[in-house]
Structure formats: structure tokens, C-alpha cells
Amino acid sequence: MQNFFICLRKNSQISFFAAMVRKEIEDETNSLTGRLKQISPVPIHLSIYSPNVVNLTLIDLPGLTKVAVEGQPESIVQDIETMVRTYVEKPNCIILAITSANQDIATSDAIKLSREVDPTGERTFGVLTKLDLMDKGTNALEVLEGRSYRLHHPWVGVVNRSQADINKNIDMITARRREREFFASSVDYRHLAGKMGSEYLAKLLSKHLESLIKTRMPGIACLINKSIDEIEAELHQLGKPVAIDSGAHLHTILELCCAFDLVFKDHLHGGRPGGDRIYSVFDNQLPHALRRLPFDRYLSLQNVRKVISEADGYQPHLIAPEHGYRRLIEVAVNYFRGPAEASVDAVHSILKELVRRSLAETQELKRFPTLQAEVSRAANEALERFREDSKMTTLRLVDMQSSYITVDFFRRLPQGNEKGGIPPAAAPIDRYTETHFHQIASNITSYIRMVSETLRNSIPKSVVHCQVREAKRSILDYFYVQLGQMKGNQLAALLNEDPALRERRQQCIKRLELHKSARDEIDSVSWS
């Protein structure tokens, strides 16, 4: 795409500018298509500013053709028609259907195509050229007066420069003067002279365009206001430009951290999905892990006999194998360490995932990838500290169960056994019979069930207290301390904005200014 901006002030300059523009257009066209009369869909934009021209945008399209000439591809006929259609099919386009006066109007490709894309004719203006080249004794009044082929808008006849005039560098001012003289002096067209010529055509089109704008202005104004709202919403999402002083930097960073913290807490409190997975750990994963502990295998008669015998040593127990009981219980309680650690790690993984989600959902942080990475690092380091504290506290709860055995539980067992018909432990029976070991295994199993139920309730309390509660209260506290120790350049580095977002904001600001300027321009004009 090539752009030319020309300002025309004096008539003496027009020829010079026209020659310069013509050469630039020819050079640009040749650079794109070569010198073999080919075409290119890439537009060349020429903007002319002058108090002597109407406010109009004119698109000069290649003429429709029926055959390819030497050097052109066979597809050029279809290529040109496709290119022309892309413009004339647009509902806001005004079509100039240009036809030679010395050609049968019924065979005009321009009229045929315009009828296809504009069947009502409201967008089509018929232009008849080469009126000065018609055979002597003939004229185009049948067409110009709308008798042979009527259009919605009146036909306009024009007389352009001939190739000889172009070769002689006849300027446009002279050409327009000759055109006016032709219509004024023509016996056939003098009664239409006021409505013929290129100057009249330009004014007619400008007036029609103004009429269209008036008709569509309410819709255009509505569209502009909608675009302004959309741009302002996008700018709000992109955020304001970053201030330059360190105090403002620190304030901005703290605001962004608070925004992340609110999103993270919203996940934990249920406002956003994810926090419910923590409850699932305690309600499903932990009970399932506790039920799968291999106590049946550990408290088998063979293992109980082995542990009791080893605990007795050379001196068999007298009444109850207390050392064996304690050893069996201590080892059995150690099995609970696995589910306890697994619960800690599962909640830790969920919290890490919630941090990742919260970072992604904190729109304000997306502007600053460096700060986003630092917040992620600080949050995950805090979660690691919380996990270590939680693991130590939770395992301590498990160890407590083996450190002190609830004696009352076993004191109540003989009474329950007597009610059930099982001989009390003090009865004179063989201490090493299968029934005796079975009774020991049953007693310890009952005790382990009680411990399991206790830990099922206390492990979630420990994990929530040490991990979830601390994450809600102080996930970025250590990072805040680090921020307070940073220098101005370090704070500025954290707010090193993504260049793509910065560029996007600048584009939005420019677009917003243009749209508001257009809105103000519309509001300042009376369209009644």
C-alpha cells in the first residue's frame, strides 16, 4: 500500500503536482505488476488537500475487459471483475458506471455489473464519456435524457482529455475549460450544459454523499458511541500507564498483590471453583487411605505371636504382655504417618494450583510479567513453608498417639469381654494359645480404630490450620517485607510492562481520540 499526500494551493502548481503524482503511481504500479499490463489488488492511496476540491473519496478501478492482451495471464478477465466486485458490492459504495457514448449502451459491462450488485439503482450513477468522438450527425440524447436506458439518478456526460492531450501535457484546468465550452457550444447538448461535465458530476456526487451521510448519521453516531464504550472497556482492562516515582511504583505493586490475594481467597471461600477440592481430600481421600492401611496383615496371629514373643524376651509376661501391646501399638500407629503426609501434600498441590489459577485470573497482573513471576515465586515459597510446618504438626499428632496409650480403653476391655462370655485376662489360661493371641489382636484392632477415628478428625484440623488458614492470612507477607527493602530501580523493574500491552494501550488511546473527535464533529453539525 502506497500513500501520497498532496496539497494544492495555486493553479500554477497543479500541472507540476499532477505530473509528479502520475509518475509516482506509474512507478509504484510497475514495481508491483511489472510493465506487462498486469494488475494488482494492492491499493495506492492518494490524498489531495485543497480548498478547490469537493470532499470525496474516489476509487479508480481498472476497466472491465473481455480478452487478455499480450503479456497478460488468461485469468485477467476474471481477476479484474473479482477486484471490481469487492468494491462495488459494498452497500456504502456509490457506483460510477462509465460507458463510452460511441458504444451501444446495451452491451455496457459497467451497466451490466452495476445492475447485478445494485438492482434498485440507488447507488448507481451513469457517466457517458467520449461525447466529442461520436460520428457526425449523431448524439447521445436518448441516453442522457433517460429515454433509452433510465437510471434512478440522471446520466451525466463528460468530455475528458484525449491521449493526444495527455501526450501534450494539457493541464486539467484547460481540459475543464474546453469541456465547458464543448457543452455550451454544442447544438445537441447546450440545453443540458448546466447538468453536464466533470465539475457538475463531482458536485452531484458530493451532494448525494452528503444526503447519504445525513440519512445514516444516527446509525453512525450509535456505532461510534458503541466503539467508544468498547475501547474504554479495553483500556480499563489494560490499565493506566505506570507512574514514574518509586512511591507510586510501590503503591501500584501493593494494589496488584491485593488483587491477586482477593482472587486467591475467593477460590478458597467458594466464590470461584477449586477450594472444594480441599474438602474432598478430608472427606474422601483421607478416609479411603485410612481404610486401606494393612492392619489385617500386621495384626495377623502369626505376627502378633512373633512380636509378643520378642517383646517378652527371656522372661515371659506374667499377666498381660504389656511390652508386646506397646510395641504392636507403636508400629501400628506409625502406619498413620503415610495418610497424614499424603493429606498435607494433596492440600499443598491444590493450593499451588489455586495460586496458578489466581495469577492467570488476575487481569491486572498480566500487564507485568516480571511482577507476576515474582508473586508466583513468593506465593509458592510461602506454600512450601506452610507445608513443612503442617507436615511437622500433623506427624506430631500421629506420634502423640503412640507416645501415650489411653489406659482406660484397655481397662474397660475385660468388663466388655465378660459380658460377651470371653474369659477375663486374669483367668488361669495358657498365655501362648491361639485364642490368647487372637484376643490381643482384637484388642489392639479396637484401639487402632479409635486412634484412626481420632486422627481422621484431627489431621484435617492440623492441615487447615497450618496451610489453608496461613495461606489466607499471610501468603504474601514475606514478599511485602522484601518489597519494603527494595530500591526504586528494583521496584521499577517489577513493573516492566509487556511491550505488546503497552503498544496495545497506545493504539487504543489513539483510536479513542479519533472516535471522540468524530463524535464531537457529528455533534457540532446540524443534520436536520
TrEMBL record:
Residues 437-528 form the GED domain. Keywords: GTP-binding, Motor protein, Nucleotide-binding. GO terms for cellular component: cytoplasm; membrane; microtubule. InterPro entries: Dynamin, Dynamin_GTPase, Dynamin_N, Dynamin_stalk, G_DYNAMIN_dom, GED, GED_dom, P-loop_NTPase. It comes from the Eukaryota. Residues 1-218 form the Dynamin-type G domain. GO terms for molecular function: GTP binding; GTPase activity; microtubule binding. CDD domains: DLP_1. PROSITE patterns: G_DYNAMIN_2, GED. Pfam families: Dynamin_M, Dynamin_N, GED. PANTHER family: DYNAMIN, DYNAMIN-RELATED PROTEIN 1E-LIKE. This is Dynamin-related protein 1E-like isoform X2. The gene is LOC111454829.
